[in-house]
Every structure is written in structure tokens, then in C-alpha cells.
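@channel sequence for tomorrow's demo:
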Amino acid sequence: MKKSIVYTRTGDKGMTSLVGGQRVSKAGARIESYGATDELNSFVGLLITELTDKEELDFCRFIQHKLFTIGSYLATNPENVGPGIESKVAPESIEKIEHEIDRLDSALPKMTHFVLPGGNRAAALAHVCRTVCRRAERQIYRLAETSRVEEPVLMFINRLSDYFFVLARKECIKNNGEEIIWDYTCI
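C-alpha cells (generated this afternoon):
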């Protein structure tokens, strides 16, 4: 059996292929959107290495699989090739995130101030995931200005950044006992 080729040399001039074979610029909105989604997935993998609660570990694995699904959807030009069922985000996936946000948030103290990212490694990584998720969301919305993007994809990514925020708060309190409150009087 022949080993697969890792490098193809087909992208050496700034072009790449979408699912279906269409060649596009590596600087295009579609590439930026699934590149940011892939970057987020990598950071989620790093976050997982710091999590100790099985529920959060399992949920973050679910997130990784959904992000890969979203990446494949974004890597497909809907005008040329219709996405398969594996590239869809079902309403149940959005509800699953909302349920997890509610579960985590119900155990947290009410927010009375803005909190700063950090506190411990797991909380800081969750905040990195939150900010990379927001960037991916902006990239996907940029793509949506010129190409069709299904609303559930946008909803999933929007909820996901909220999930990382409550996860960061939970991890900070679990490991530190308190959050870092923004000192708005700092000069």
C-alpha cells in the first residue's frame, strides 16, 4: 500500500482547493473562515489537556467533532457542491451547547464586575478559545456577506464563545476560588 503524500505542491502559488476541487485564493473569506475554525479546534485540543472533569472533557470532544464538521461545511462552496448531511449543524447541537452553558452558569456566582482572562491555565485557555471563537465568528460572517452560510452554523459558533466564557469562569473559581476582577480605576 502506498503511503499518502503530505505535500502536493499545488498550493505553492497561493491557491488551494475547496471540497469539490474548485481552486481559490488562500487569502479568500472562505479559507479564512475555516482556517480560524481549525485554529479554534486546535486550541480546544490544548484546553482539553488541562481539564479534569469528565463532563467538560466529553463536551469539549463533542465541540471538536462539531468544529471539524463546520470546517468541512465552510470548505465547500455551496454553489458548486451541496454539503452532505455530515456538514450540517442540527438544532439539537445548538440546544446541547445552551444546556451546557446553563448547567455551568447555574453553579457560578452572579457576575457583578467584568472579569479578566486568566486565573489559572485551564481558565486562561478557555478564554483563548473564547476569543479565537469570536474571531472565527467574524470571519464566518465576513464570508456570509458574499456567500450563503446556514444560520445554524452562525448560531452554533455564537453560542460556543459563550460556552467558553462560562467554562473559563468555572475553571477559575474551581482552581483559584476567585476570579480576577477588572480594576477600572487603573491608570
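heads up for whoever presents: The domain at 23-176 is CATH 1.20.1200.10 (Hypothetical Protein Ta1238; Chain: A;).
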